[in-house]
């Protein structure tokens, strides 16, 4: 079990917080010097053991998280499975090993000038600070995707737990500590702090030993962390996933043929998890037609039947109510449909509104995220106005095409526009539900994330916590195993521009 991090009594809260952060980051830095040298196969076992330890306390985790977040047991169990699956996926990735992108160019002394031997691979950046997300108490919190991808890379992690599920976060940290002990990892490989984002959180971000930050939450929170990181003497990357309204384009032929199914599917997606997903379809777009009107009236019926439910925490519920009221206060909006029952304490009332594209285009506030079970249907006069509206979108995590093969063939120019602002382009599906695999992109241009070159879901998420290093003219015995001539790990490498697992020489 790791030693608890403590500070002397009798000092101010701010000083105590700072002292705690200093001690924590010193521990993270020292542990990194040991952890980064631990072979990938042992780090893989550590990740798998975290999953096993979580599974052992599953019932308690579900009970505590249920109380703290109001999420149902089925969802929480599914999320624990996903969290364990993510840890196992990263374990498999690093056990196989090719992810480190080894590239080798052997020497050519006969060239003029002589060509040196150069060998490149990815190495961990150092201690990473992870902010737990409120809307994923497991999969994007203490042992979530940010944490396990950083641990897989060989970075140590300091988690700033989310106060909305503090007890859950402590329990998961307990499971991580057991895994550290069972697999002989350095005791401070993962540390856990609770406290205010504005004090403890910012102090962690600006600490000189912090080398990168992972975050999922509000636009204002992510931006505050990014700005703090950029004000440092040595700026560091902040990988923040912040805000997205995930535009869905409903094409005419599918509206004619599939309106009832579309309405059912989208009512489900808009209200899944009471809309508390970053992939929630916050805006639907279509060209005006009787088929679009018919779809909207079917959607209204579906939404009316959905029961309001409690949101994750009071702050999110208040933000939803305020965001919805602000949205509905804008000129030109019409309520299409809303849940028949009024929302009770801490509950969100699902609602769908519509607005003409001419109004939407003139008012940038209408494209701001309302985090919860809300969606705005933008009604365009024609295809040209649809194109203008799409050109106006800021960066998004996803965008969706709902269309028949005829729709797709007739609208490739529109689909081309969609690819330009989103990280994931979906055909005939819903944006909610994110696969965790090698091909997933859960990222997108600003303000969806702070850096659209990366993903926070899937195996490529590891790339946020590494940097490339090139060894020039090293003797074979000095090289890391990944770059040695004999290729003892048997990984895929690019040797003199050819992909191969062969040894050199
Ligand atoms: P949040 O307010 O952004 O908080 C997330 C984490 O960041 C918390 O640990 C928080 O600390 C910290 N933080 C927030 N603002 C900060 C600042 N200015 N400086 C330093 N640290 C800061 O997110 P939330 O609590 O999950 O939900 C609030 C709103 O965020 C929601 O209503 C929604 O609009 C949005 N949200 C979006 C997504 C998404 O995926 N797009 C997901 C979740 C939430 P504290 O513990 O001190 O608050």
Structure description:
The protein has 505 residues and is an alpha/beta fold. The protein folds into 2 domains: 19-242 and 454-465, Aldehyde Dehydrogenase, Chain A, domain 1 (3-Layer(aba) Sandwich), CATH 3.40.605.10; 248-427, Aldehyde Dehydrogenase, Chain A, domain 2, CATH 3.40.309. It has 15 helices and 19 strands. The protein has helices at 13-35, 40-56, 58-69, 73-96, 145-153, 166-183, 197-206, 219-231, 252-271, 290-304, 314-329, 357-362, 383-391, 405-410, 412-419; strands spanning 103-105, 118-124, 128-131, 157-160, 190-193, 212-216, 238-241, 248-250, 283-287, 309-310, 334-338, 347-348, 351-356, 374-380, 396-402, 422-427, 466-472, 493-495, 498-500. The strands form 4 sheets. It has a 7-stranded mixed sheet with strand order 11-13-14-9-8-15-16, sandwiched between helices. Strands 17-2-1-18-19 form a 5-stranded mixed sheet, with no helix packed on it. Strands 5-4-3-6-7 form a 5-stranded parallel sheet, sandwiched between helices. β13 (351-356), α12 and β14 (374-380) form a beta-alpha-beta unit. α1 (13-35) crosses α7, α2 (40-56) runs antiparallel to α4 and α4 packs parallel to α5 (145-153). The mean pLDDT is 96. The structure holds NADP nicotinamide-adenine-dinucleotide phosphate.
């Amino acid at each position: 079990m790791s030693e608890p991090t403590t500070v002397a009594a009798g000092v101010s809260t701010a000083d105590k917080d700072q002292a705690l952060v200093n001690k924590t980051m010193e521990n993270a830095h020292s542990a990194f010097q040991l952890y980064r040298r631990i072979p990938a196969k042992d780090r893989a076992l550590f990740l798998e053991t975290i999953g096993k330890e979580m599974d052992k306390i599953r019932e308690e985790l579900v009970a505590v998280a249920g109380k703290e977040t109001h999420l149902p047991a089925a969802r929480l169990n599914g999320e624990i499975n996903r969290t364990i699956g993510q840890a196992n996926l990263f374990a498999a990735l690093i056990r196989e090993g090719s992810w480190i992108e080894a590239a080798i160019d052997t020497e050519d002394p006969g060239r003029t000038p002589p060509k040196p031997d150069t060998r490149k691979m990815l190495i961990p950046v150092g201690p990473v600070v992870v902010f737990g997300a409120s809307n994923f108490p497991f999969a994007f919190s203490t042992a979530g995707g940010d944490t396990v991808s950083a641990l897989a890379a060989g970075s140590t992690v300091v988690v700033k737990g989310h106060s909305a599920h503090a007890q859950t976060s402590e329990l998961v940290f307990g499971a991580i500590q057991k895994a550290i002990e069972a697999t002989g990892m350095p005791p401070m490989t993962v540390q856990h702090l609770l406290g205010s984002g504005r004090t403890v959180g910012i102090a962690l971000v600006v600490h000189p030993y912090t080398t990168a930050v992972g975050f999922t939450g509000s636009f204002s929170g992510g931006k505050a962390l990014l700005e703090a990181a950029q004000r440092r003497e040595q700026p560091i990357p902040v990988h923040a996933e912040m805000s997205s309204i995930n535009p869905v384009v409903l094409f005419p032929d599918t509206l004619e043929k599939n309106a009832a199914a579309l309405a059912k599917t989208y009512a489900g997606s808009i209200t899944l998890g009471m809309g508390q997903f970053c992939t929630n379809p916050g805006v639907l777009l279509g060209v005006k037609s009787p088929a679009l009107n018919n779809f909207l009236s079917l959607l209204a019926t579906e939404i009316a039947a959905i029961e309001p439910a409690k949101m994750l925490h009071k702050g999110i519920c208040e933000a939803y109510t305020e965001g919805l009221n602000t949205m509905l206060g804008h000129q030109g909006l019409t309520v299409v449909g809303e849940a028949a029952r009024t929302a009770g304490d801490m509950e969100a009332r699902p609602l769908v509104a519509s607005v003409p594209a001419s109004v939407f285009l003139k008012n940038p506030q209408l494209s701001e995220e309302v985090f919860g079970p809300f969606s705005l249907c933008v009604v365009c006069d024609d295809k040209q106005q649809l194109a203008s509206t799409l050109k106006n979108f800021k960066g998004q995590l996803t965008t969706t095409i709902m269309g028949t093969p005829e729709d797709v063939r007739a609208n490739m120019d529109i689909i081309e526009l969609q690819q330009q602002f989103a990280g994931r382009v979906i055909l005939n599906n819903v944006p909610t539900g994110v696969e965790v695999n090698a091909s997933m992109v859960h990222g997108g241009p600003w303000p969806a994330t702070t850096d659209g070159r990366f993903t926070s879901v899937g195996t490529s998420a590891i790339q946020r916590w590494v940097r490339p290093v090139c060894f020039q003219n090293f003797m074979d015995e000095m090289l890391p195993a990944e770059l040695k001539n004999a290729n003892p790990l048997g990984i895929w490498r690019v040797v003199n521009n050819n992909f191969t697992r062969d040894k050199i020489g």
